[in-house]
Amino acid sequence: MHVAQIAEDLRHEQLALDAIVAPLDEAQWRLATPSPRWTIADQIAHLTFFDESAARAITDPAAFAADLELLIRVSPEGDEAVDDATMGDLRRLPPAELLERWQDGRRRLAEAAATLEDDTRVSWYGPSMGAKSFLTARLMEVWAHGQDVVDALRIQRVPTDRLRHIAQLGFITRSWSYLNRGLTAPDEPVRIELEAPGDATWSFGPEDAAETITGPADDFCLVVTQRRHLDDTSLTATPLAREWLLIAQAFAGPATDGPAAGTRG
C-alpha cells in the first residue's frame, strides 16, 4: 500500500471521530473517559497537539525538534507534567474552538502528508519512522483515542477496513512489546487469523505456526492498543500468543498496562 492511501485512510478515520464529537454539548465534552484524568476534550486536545506536531515533523524538522526537546525535558516529572506541556493551552479552549483547532491541525497534517514519498523518513519521538509507518501510527492513535471517546459516551462504532492498518501494526510490534519491558521476545512465530469487516479474513504470520490467535479484527485492535483486556474479547489464543497479548503495546513510549479484566467491554 502506498503512503497516499494510508494518508487518505487517516483522513477518513479523523472524519469519523469528528462526526462523533462535533454534535456534543459542552457537558459531554467534559465527560470522563477511561484514560485517567482525561475528559473527551482532553482526548481531542491530545490528538490536536500531536497532529500539529506531526505536520511540523514533516515540513519543519527544526521546529519539531523544539516539541521533542519539550517532552524530553518534562517527561521525568511524570504524566501530569507531560499532559500540561502538550495539552495545557488546548485544555483552556471552549469545545467549539478546540474542535476548530483540531480540524485545522488535521488539514495541515494532510497537506504535509501529501508531500511524502513511500521511502521518506520522518523524525519523531524516538527513532525516525518511514512515512507509511508514521501515518499508520497516527491512524492508530485516532482510532484508539476515539475508542476512549465512544466508551465515555457508551456508544458503539461499526468496524471498517481501516482496522487492517492497526492489526498489521499490532502484529509487527510483537517483539517491541517484550523489548519495551526489558524482556526477551520468543523465537516462536504466531499465526493470526482475524474476522474482518465484510466477511473477509486478515492473516499474518506463517501458516504452519503452532501459536495462533483467532477472532474478530476489532477485538485484536482493542487489545494491542490496550483498550480492552484479552479476557473481555472474543479472541482465542494459544499459551505463548496469550502471553504476548497480555503485554501487547502497538504504540511507542514507556511500557504501560492495559485495563484489568472485567473493567471495560
Précis, in short:
By secondary structure, the chain is α+β, with helices and mostly antiparallel strands. The chain is 54% helix and 10% strand.
Protein traits:
265 residues, 10% strand, single chain, two-stranded antiparallel ribbon, alpha+beta
Unreliable sequence segments: none
Helix and strand sequence: HHHHHHEEHHHEEEHEH
Strand content: 5-15%
Sheet with the most strands: spatial strand order = 4-3-5-6
Number of strands: 6
Helix and strand content put the structural class at alpha+beta
Please state the CA-atom Rg, rounded to the nearest Å: 18 Å
Question: Mean pLDDT, rounded to whole units?
Answer: 95
Specify the number of helices.
11
Please give the alpha-carbon distance between the first and last residues: 32 Å
Kindly state the percentage of residues in helix.
Answer: 40-55%
Note the main sheet: 4 strands, mixed
- What gross morphology would you assign? globular
Your description of this structure?
Strand 1 and strand 2 form a beta hairpin. The strands form two sheets. This protein has a four-stranded mixed beta sheet with strand order 4-3-5-6. The chain has a two-stranded antiparallel ribbon with strand order 1-2. The model has no long low-confidence stretch (mean pLDDT 95). The longest helix is centred in the middle third of the chain and has 23 residues, at 131-153. It contains eleven helices and six strands. The radius of gyration is 18 Å and the shape is globular. Helices cover 54% and strands 10% of the residues.
